[in-house]
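User: Some background: our group keeps a shared notebook of sequences we're curious about, and every so often someone picks one and asks for a predicted structure to add to the entry. Today it's my turn. The entry only has the sequence so far, pasted here. Could you supply the structure so I can complete it?
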Amino acid sequence: MSSNDISHHQSTINTFTCVRCGLTVSTLVPDGGRRNHCPACLHSRHVIDQVESGPSDCGSRMSPIAIAVLRTGDWMLIHRCVRCDELTSNPVCMDDNQLILMRMAVRPLAQPPFPLEAFGTL
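Assistant: Of course. Here's the predicted structure to add to the notebook entry:
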């Protein structure tokens, strides 16, 4: 293999195409970490079976549905598979779309599961 072939092979291994928006995404994050979701739309592909801890045969799109905050203060992105409903969590990356992250984080406050009028009587 020539050095050109090797660098092309490494760049294909270190990138993936987003299943939702088609963006070519680097698996390497600017801070040195690794990512498994698109920084633009935050969608992912179901490639790991969380129950059996191995490769998943599903391969469907994973939609971002929520944000979870760990005790350390780190944010986790919660995905749900559109085919099999499996849930996963992955660290938020420093270059993820901040607008989408904030929309997900405040959604429970903007759309509570109870009528806000109940606060008027307290």
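Suggested note for the entry: The first helix runs from residue 3 to 13. The radius of gyration is 18 Å.
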